[in-house]
Design brief:
By secondary structure, the chain is mainly alpha-helical. Helix content is 57%, strand content 0%.
Length: 102
């Protein structure tokens, strides 16, 4: 065996994402902590059906739909939506009114 092969054989495998970077794996956990349509991170959420409607409208504000989008992209967008929801509640603002006025 070569010296490089010995070094490779003695390394411990680390969890990796599609791009192969451990940094990406850690970053993903921070950016997308919730599964798509998971309300566990939302503060005082409405019903799931209502929140999904708000999410469709939230994406629509950015000219985006839910069709033909990868699960990962939708999950990232869902997490951004939940963060916005929580931030507006913390600031005492009404998300539904904000959405209607956009």
């Amino acid at each position: 065996m070569t010296e490089d092969a010995d070094a490779d054989a003695n390394t411990t495998a680390l969890p990796r994402t599609i791009s192969g970077s451990l940094v990406d794996h850690v970053m993903d956990r921070h950016l997308i902590p919730w599964a798509l349509y998971d309300l566990s991170g939302a503060r005082a959420p409405d019903s799931l059906e209502t929140m999904q409607d708000y999410f469709r409208r939230f994406r629509g504000l950015r000219g985006k739909s839910l069709d033909g989008i990868s699960y990962e992209s939708l999950q990232r967008s869902w997490c951004a939506f939940i963060r916005r929801w929580n931030r507006m509640l913390e600031d005492g603002r009404n998300f539904q009114q904000w959405l209607a006025n956009r």
